[in-house]
């Protein structure tokens, strides 16, 4: 049976064979050329960097990042290092002296400091004789008079600015809040000072110094000092990424090398594929460095991922080569035959794997898009290196023939494959019917799978950063912030009395919000400072702890604050009195629960303050978390569809039939549906990493299907007998399919050695998909071909 589609495929297969002959003429020259190219690219590997920051989830040009950058340029970072510790008696002279010394050492030694807040520099605003006095809450020497001392205590415990921020309600837990600068200043080669945002390495340097100083004061200031906040969390994730990068790569080389030794029982069968894979990994990661793309949570898996995924090409090529070589063919002839037999199939498997990954490349999330782009690039690089470098090594590496009887090799495996052939060709309707029912049920169950985006859940339970955060939230109520930046549009617009009263009303209401999913712990705003100063100017009368009716009086009060404590004032408003910030503190929660809260906050602020023609911007780490989750849901659904369409088109081109191409996708989609249903039944939500499994798996699970369909198509075209085509395809290529699936599953199972829980789940899900896909290739794919292809007579 000869068709135009089979003609072009035969021409391509012959072309692969001719490529092998061409390389075999000068293998050393070709190999030296490849090494020079890889060395030139690999020289950039040292510039690779990591980024575990939450804002790193979005591109720098994203509108959310632009808003956050504007906020940081005015008010600094919203992320605060919360240094917390338990105390017996705060108002003790010895303790206060030690706390003040601790505060001063932090100011002097920690780099990139913007401001530090503690009880030692907290303000106490009081009035006397119609004069406003702003002094330190804790003087150098505590008053000995009990009444004066009690007055200090009452002020500290009752001030909304300090309660559950610098001191707990019971007065026994203190926090020193360290705010790092948004920028650093570097001098370029021409002597010009350049302003740059702090990077992970700068934050890590500052955090390390905070840890160091805190350690010095353990046993002196308090028995245990903890550092909480989103910065320690992101640095902890970055440390795990760095650790996983090395561990995954080493384990992948060890596991895959061991499996190759078991499979081929030859040193050359281990060394040659590992050389090809390592060159591919070096090239791919080097391209990340060249394009200034950092290692993030998702891209840290790339080296081990590529090692596992790309070894399949080498396994299929070497399996056929060793067979022909051991049966008596010379090296070059065995190489040519193996390239003709596998070249087109490994091209399609590489393209389908790349397509599954490339579907993420358009994502608005940088970790997802980077994984998609560089994963796809790495798959193509691995195919090119397999096609060009492996033939060089085959020609250059000396190895002996083995006296194998390939018809008897692996008798148990051959018996198993023979059973698969008999079962699938004898009961195709039953197999397809059961698979269809299973697909419908699993799809229905999988549709109920839940989603999650909660970085704290990724961390190991014994993480110090996580423990510190939990302590901070249990004692102070919250550690995460939603920042509302309100722009009145005109200088001194903040001083408008009517606006200020409305702002106070909004703040008071928001501070009371609480549901099963979220709880507002604290809200800070300029209104607190105004009320505090107004009370002081009215002889400290609590009845005047309110916003005055006069805009002029508000302006005067703020001016007095500016004269004495400008850093406190300008932490809440800008220097033109045009913009104000409202900081809403809450405990960390799932972004799925955060999204309705953020929408509610933004809508409420606009609704209540809209009459004053203000511009309201919601920003900070929390909104970025919510935004990444929303974008992730959208982009993942988009990538699933794109991957399925592209890979289906590839299968249609390979098989040469639209009908059969569509049918052939069933064995690849069923495993994904089953695994998602399993996670739904196990109440395991999908997060940023595990949501990617579908598109990655569809590119991988189709690989065995490609080899089966490629072999079946060739034999069916020659004989017209579907049973014969299925039998000889599985008996000749089934071993390589099993081997590549085992290697792939083992490669992804390596991720269970991660310290991050979502990485473990990702590895298990993908390994399960691959194992189920192999079962589909051995049973469901043959059954589908039996029902789709009748036995026909082939005329010679």
Shape: elongated
**Structural category:** alpha+beta
Specify the number of helices: 26
Q: What is the beta-strand fraction?
A: 5-15%
The gyration radius over C-alpha positions equals 33 Å
**Major sheet characteristics:** 4 strands, antiparallel
Number of strands: 12
Looking at this protein, list some descriptive labels:
4-stranded antiparallel sheet, alpha+beta, 12 strands, 796 residues
Question: What's the arrangement of secondary structure elements?
Answer:
Elements: H1 4-25, H2 27-42, H3 63-75, E1 80-86, H4 93-109, E2 113-117, E3 123-128, E4 131-136, H5 146-158, E5 173-180, E6 183-187, E7 193-197, H6 200-217, E8 226-228, H7 230-264, H8 268-290, H9 302-326, H10 331-358, H11 366-396, H12 411-426, H13 428-446, H14 455-458, H15 464-476, E9 480-487, H16 497-510, E10 522-524, H17 526-537, H18 551-564, H19 566-569, E11 579-586, H20 591-609, E12 615-619, H21 621-655, H22 658-663, H23 666-681, H24 693-719, H25 722-749, H26 757-788
Antiparallel strand pairs: 1-5, 1-8, 2-5, 3-4, 6-7, 9-11, 9-12, 10-11
Could you characterize the architecture of this molecule?
- This protein is of the alpha+beta class.
- The protein is elongated.
- Helices cover 63% and strands 9% of the residues.
- A 4-stranded antiparallel beta sheet has the order 2-5-1-8, sandwiched between helices.
């Amino acid at each position: 049976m000869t068709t135009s589609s089979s003609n072009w495929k035969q021409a391509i297969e012959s072309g692969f064979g001719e490529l092998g002959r061409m390389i075999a003429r000068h293998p050393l020259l070709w190999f030296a050329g490849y090494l020079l190219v890889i060395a030139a690219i690999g020289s950039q590997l040292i510039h690779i960097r990591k980024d575990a920051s939450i804002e790193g989830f979005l591109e720098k040009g994203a509108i959310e990042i632009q808003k956050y950058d504007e906020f940081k340029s005015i008010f600094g970072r919203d992320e605060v290092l919360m240094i917390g510790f338990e105390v017996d008696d705060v108002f003790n002279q010895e303790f206060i002296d030690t706390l003040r010394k601790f505060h001063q050492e932090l100011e002097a030694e920690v780099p990139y400091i913007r401001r530090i807040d503690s009880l030692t520099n907290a303000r106490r605003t009081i009035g006397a004789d119609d004069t406003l006095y702003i002094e330190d809450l804790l003087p150098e020497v505590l008053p000995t008079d009990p009444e004066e001392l009690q007055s200090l205590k009452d002020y500290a415990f009752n001030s909304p600015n300090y309660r559950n921020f610098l001191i707990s309600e019971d007065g026994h837990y203190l926090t020193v809040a360290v705010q790092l600068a948004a920028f650093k200043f570097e001098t370029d080669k021409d002597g010009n000072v350049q302003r740059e945002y702090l990077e992970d390495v700068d934050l890590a340097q500052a955090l390390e110094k905070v840890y160091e100083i805190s350690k010095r004061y353990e046993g002196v200031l308090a028995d245990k000092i903890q550092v909480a906040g989103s910065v320690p969390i992101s640095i902890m994730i970055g440390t795990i990424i760095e650790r996983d990068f090395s561990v995954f790569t080493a384990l992948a080389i060890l596991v895959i090398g061991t499996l190759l030794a078991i499979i081929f029982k030859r040193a050359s069968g281990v060394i040659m594929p590992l050389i090809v894979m390592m060159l591919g990994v070096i090239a791919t990661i080097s391209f990340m460095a060249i394009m200034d793309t950092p290692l993030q949570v998702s891209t840290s898996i790339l080296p081990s991922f590529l090692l596992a995924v790309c070894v399949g090409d080498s396994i299929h090529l070497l399996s056929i080569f060793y067979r022909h070589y051991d049966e008596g063919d010379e090296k070059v002839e065995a190489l040519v035959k193996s390239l003709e037999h596998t070249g087109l199939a490994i091209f399609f498997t590489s393209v389908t794997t790349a397509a599954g990954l490339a579907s993420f490349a358009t994502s608005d999330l940088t970790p997802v898009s980077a994984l998609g782009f560089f994963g796809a690039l790495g798959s193509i690089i691995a195919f090119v290196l397999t096609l060009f470098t492996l033939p060089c090594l085959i020609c250059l590496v000396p190895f002996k023939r083995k006296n194998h009887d390939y018809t008897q090799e692996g008798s148990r495996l051959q018996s198993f494959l023979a059973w698969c052939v008999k079962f699938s060709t004898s009961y195709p309707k039953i197999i397809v019917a059961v698979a269809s029912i299973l697909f419908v049920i699993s799809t229905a169950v999988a549709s109920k799978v839940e989603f999650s985006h909660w970085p704290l859940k990724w961390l190991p339970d014994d993480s110090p950063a996580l423990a510190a955060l939990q302590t901070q939230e249990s004692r102070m109520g919250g550690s995460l912030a939603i920042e509302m930046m309100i722009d009145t549009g005109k200088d001194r617009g903040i001083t408008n009395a009517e606006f200020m009263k409305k702002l106070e009303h909004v703040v008071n209401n928001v501070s009371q919000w609480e549901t099963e999913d979220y709880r507002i712990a604290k809200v800070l705003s300029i209104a607190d400072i105004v009320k505090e100063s107004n009370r002081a100017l009215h002889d400290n009368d609590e009845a005047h702890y309110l916003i005055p009716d006069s805009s002029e009086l508000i302006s005067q009060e703020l001016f007095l604050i500016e004269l004495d404590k400008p850093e406190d004032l300008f932490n809440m408003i800008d220097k033109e009195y045009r913009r104000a910030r409202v900081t809403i503190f809450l405990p960390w929660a799932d972004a799925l629960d955060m999204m309705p809260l953020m929408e509610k906050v933004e809508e409420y602020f606009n609704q209540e303050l809209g009459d004053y023609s203000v511009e309201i911007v919601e920003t900070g780490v929390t909104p970025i978390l919510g935004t990444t989750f929303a974008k992730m849901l959208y982009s993942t659904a988009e990538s699933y569809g794109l991957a399925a369409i592209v890979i289906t088109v590839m299968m249609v081109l390979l098989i040469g039939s639209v009908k059969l191409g569509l049918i052939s996708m069933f064995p690849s989609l069923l495993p994904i549906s089953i695994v998602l249903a399993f996670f739904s039944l196990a109440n395991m939500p999908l997060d940023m990493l595990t949501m990617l499994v579908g598109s990655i798996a569809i590119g991988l699970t189709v690989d065995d299907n490609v080899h089966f369909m490629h072999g079946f198509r060739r034999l069916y075209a020659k004989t017209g007998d579907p049973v014969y085509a299925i039998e000889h395809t599985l008996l000749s290529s089934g071993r390589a399919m099993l081997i590549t699936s085992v290697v792939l599953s083992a490669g992804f199972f390596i991720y269970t050695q991660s310290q991050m829980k979502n990485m473990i789940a990702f590895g298990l899900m993908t390994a399960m998909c691959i194992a189920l896909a192999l079962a589909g290739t051995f049973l469901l794919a043959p059954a589908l071909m039996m029902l789709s292809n009748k036995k026909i007579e082939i005329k010679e």
